[in-house]
Amino acid sequence: MVGWILIAIGYVLMLGGFRLLGGVSSAMDALRSWGSSSAGRQRSASSS
Predict the structure, then answer these.
(1) Rounded CA gap, 45 and 23, in Å?
(2) Does residue 4 surpass a pLDDT of 80?
(3) What pTM did the predictor assign?
């Protein structure tokens, strides 16, 4: 339970940091590259 809370806090801080640095487009690019490297199933889901 505590682990999920920490992950959620880190996720929100990461998105906030990306918005401050360069806007939502930077965050989307970073999330896309992270997702493609961490899980191949997201690729198959987005291609369908």
Answers:
(1) 26
(2) yes
(3) 0.38
